[in-house]
Amino acid sequence: MKGLRWRYTRLPSQVEDALSGEEGEQEEEEEEEAAPAPAPAAEDPPEPQLTAASQVLGASEIRQLSFHLPPRVSGCLWSLVFCTSRDGFSLRSLYRQMEGRGGPALLVLRDQDGQTFGAFSSSAIRLSKGFYGTGETFLFSFSPQLKVFKWTGSNSFFVKGDLDSLMMGSGSGQFGLWLDGDLYHGGSYPCATFNNEVLARQEQFCIKDLEAWVLS
Known about the structure:
Blueprint: H1 14-33, E1 49-50, H2 59-66, E2 77-83, H3 84-87, H4 91-98, E3 105-111, E4 116-121, E5 138-142, E6 146-150, E7 159-161, E8 165-171, E9 174-180, E10 185-187, E11 204-215
Parallel strand pairs: 1-2
Antiparallel strand pairs: 2-11, 3-4, 3-11, 4-5, 5-6, 7-8, 8-9, 9-10, 10-11
């Protein structure tokens, strides 16, 4: 009968157990460190390029507005097609300068009180028999921080232009923003289209400077 052979297994000591546990923790930490990083936040929109210096908006205000523009116009060139300091105070002149322009328009104003406000129109500003535009249209005001009033979905009274006035947003007989034919007097009232506040310091105001930009 052959002799039995015993197989001995060496048990780790408590010190070795502790070390191996620490190594395990280190491996887990290394695995955690090697985990993929979270996806980066959405990039800021490109800095707008302007064909001329604005007399109404500063660089900071332009940058703030660019965050609220539709993605389709992000990075588009801003072309100054009308300004009262160059073209005079005439709504008909504004319509003429806008003729043949298909891109969205940004209307910016400064009133006699120094308040800056305006509107983004999803298409060029023009004469019309009724309201036109899409839900991309919005009103805004720097009071002094930027406030943007976007479409509520309650109606589609975005933009309407006739020879005597330009209107943006409506409801219950009130217009979010309206300008007279001389581009000198204007008004702003809360309206259902944008659920906006009064854009100027007062409901009725006198215009000091007005610019119309086409984004394309």
